[in-house]
Amino acid sequence: MHDVKRKPVVYVVSDSIGETAEFVVKAVASQFNSGHVDIKRIPFVNDAETILDVVEEAHASRGMIAYTLVLPELRRIIADESIKRDLLAVDVMGPMMDAFGKLLQIDPRLEPGLVRRLDEEYFRRVAAIEFAVKYDDGKDPRGLLLADVVLIGVSRTSKTPLSMYLAHKRLKVANLPLVPEVEAPEELFWLHPCKVVGLTINPRQLNEIRQERLKALGLHAQANYASMERILDELEYAEKVMRKVGCPIFDVSNKAVEEVANKILQLIREETEDGK
To answer: Number of helices and strands (H, E) in the chain?
Structure first.
């Protein structure tokens, strides 16, 4: 069998979105028929640990790095570490910044993302969205302690849509499904009750939602997941957990995501004002 040679990987490292460096890499790759390399973008890099991880991965895969980092210390780390490993690394923006500094006789602002006029609000929103994705559906209970708000409830109570909606409002949201067979992580009970929001729903509506979900997946609509007995058991268990946490509970029955999200935002505003 013929051994297909793997394409080298160009790691695009940026303290912003990484579009500038990726555009340059693609423009250069087009001069070599584009298809000879794979591009892996690593955005929002702001610490040495991430840089070291990327350098190690690029070295192990015999790839190269193209980077747009405005902070001199990060540029220095990636350059030094690449030299140590005899790894190709190209500073896409640094030389031009240095040249501008000499031409204008002033120091650069050293703020990531100014090329797109990205302000603090934009970065917070992007970070919040990434947070919501990373800590969706209880993937990592450590996220509960890092979140601005934690949504808990049984399956199909709009936890993920609400998380994404609130993330666009720049809130870091983690969500956790409550399942009778799976004990809630201890981190949940370490949180102040005002940081947790319980979501509940009318059993009959949940039954309909789950039946439709099963049909969409091509599964039997009468599966235990959608049975009324199972639903009642789950809701009862979820209510016990919510009572133990002592958190506010919102009924999402027949309510749009925006409506529930606005109530949660109002609750958070009130808690913030009370805490002043």
So the answer is: 10, 8
Q: Which segments of 188-242 are extended strands (E)?
A: 196-200
199: how many CB neighbours lie within 10 A of its CB?
A: 23
3-state secondary structure of 65: strand
Answer yes or no: do 107 and 165 share one domain: no
Report the C-alpha gap between 53 and 46 in whole angstroms: 13
State the Cα–Cα distance between residues 76 and 199, nearest whole angstrom: 48
Residue 215: CATH number of its domain: 3.40.50
Asked if 9 and 63 touch (Cβ cutoff 8 Å), the reply is yes
Residue 240 has which token pair? Answer: 């016990």
Structure tokens at 217: 């997946």
Q: For 240, what's the count of Cα atoms within 13 Å in the CB-facing half-sphere?
A: 11
In 189-267, beta strands by DSSP E: 196-200, 249-251
Mean pLDDT for all residues in the chain: 90
pTM: 0.59
Q: What is the pLDDT of residues 17-52, one digit of tens each?
A: 888 889 899 999 888 876 788 999 999 898 999 999
Give the CA-trace dihedral at 16, 19, 24, 29, to 10 degrees.
Answer: 130
The C-alpha atoms of residue 274 and residue 238 are separated, in whole angstroms, by 28
Collapse the DSSP code of 27 into the 3-class scheme (helix H, G, I; strand E, B; otherwise coil) and give the result. helix
Number of domains in the chain: 2
- For 190, the domain range is 120-274
Coil, helix or strand at residue 40? strand
Asked if the structure places residue 141 within a domain, the reply is yes
pLDDT tens digit sequence for 46-86: 899 999 999 999 999 999 999 988 888 999 999 999 999 99
* Cα distance from N-terminal residue to C-terminal residue, the chain: 70
